[in-house]
């Protein structure tokens, strides 16, 4: 999804009809839609007659204003990992995409700073079961991150994946996706 | 997929007897509820007290049921456990499927 998004944002030819931009014929310029508008647009385009739907989380980092704006459509809330603070699940929830055209999605905005990390994950992470059929769960995820937050990002992700695999012991069939973003420290000085 | 059914006034009360509503049983769950609808029950109260977990397929099945029931009917829940309540809150399904603490509250809400 990330690569598709980037491709759509950066390719001029993809401007027309992109759910992520609004093209102004008069000026020939495109406006980047807010995450909520983009998700609302996708919901209009993907209306299923049956019970299919999909979840997503779509956000925009505004480096200048140091904010992260995102829309959450049925997807688990990301974890904000900030030095000196307890890791916390952020977001306000939201319905998945494709259920009804009348759903209005809203946007969640948080200030971010250099060094912050955001972890995105699929529900296969928190819902995977161990041999006792106990779910990995949000609390265990947050505890793991708190205990290992000082590791470099790549190691933290690898170790988390190992921990989840150990927990589920090959039993779970749902997919496990992890994506972490770190706002790099300013190294220009 | 097993259900236990009873009636409370004009409302059908269906107890879900599976502890997990996941991909493997979601189709038969949906089929079971739609069978009740096809037999004429358009106001259904689901007793979720035995359900410890519902995943995205389970939610999909419930959504399929409410689409079949339509605006003139009702599908409400009661007795949902914490894990189920959090799933419904995350996906805002609590706005689609009203949740109540007791059967009496659920039944009177749709009566």
Key traits:
heterodimer, A: 189 residues, alpha+beta, Phosphatase 2c, domain 1, 4-stranded antiparallel beta sheet, 3-stranded antiparallel beta sheet, B: 111 residues, alpha/beta
Describe this protein's structure.
Chain A is α+β, with helices and mostly antiparallel strands and 189 residues long. Chain A has a domain of 108 residues: Phosphatase 2c, domain 1. Helices cover 28% and strands 22% of the residues of chain A. Chain A is built from five helices and nine strands. In chain A, strands 6-5-8-9 form a four-stranded antiparallel β-sheet. In chain A, strand 1 and strand 2 form a beta hairpin. The relative contact order of chain A is 0.13. Chain B has 111 residues and is of the alpha/beta class. In chain B, 40% of the residues lie in helices and 25% in strands. In chain B, helix 1 packs parallel to helix 2. The chains are: A alpha+beta (189), B alpha/beta (111). Chains A and B meet through loops of A and helix 2 and helix 3 of B.
